[in-house]
Write a structure and sequence with these properties.
Strand content: 35-45%
Number of helices: 0
Bound molecules: zinc ion
Oligomer: single chain
Number of domains: 1
Helix content: under 10%
CATH class: Mainly Beta
Order of helices and strands: EEEEEE
CATH topology: N-terminal domain of TfIIb
CATH architecture: Single Sheet
């Protein structure tokens, strides 16, 4: 049996609109919005998310 190893993880991002920092999945199944101001932080693409903002490392 093969085991898939998708590189899915959580990353810290900072909303450029309001400065809110939150943890998001890097492969979201749907768009991820800022919890504070509803700005789209990560757009769902079916694979790796399209990050609209900077990630904190
Ligand atoms: Zn925000």
């Amino acid at each position: 049996m093969k085991k898939k190893k998708p590189e899915s993880k959580f990353v810290e991002v900072k909303c450029e609109e309001c400065g809110n920092e939150q943890t998001v999945f890097n492969k979201p199944s749907r768009d991820v919005l800022c919890l504070v101001c509803d700005k789209v932080l990560v757009e769902s693409t079916g694979g790796k998310g399209d990050f609209k903002i900077e990630t904190l490392d």
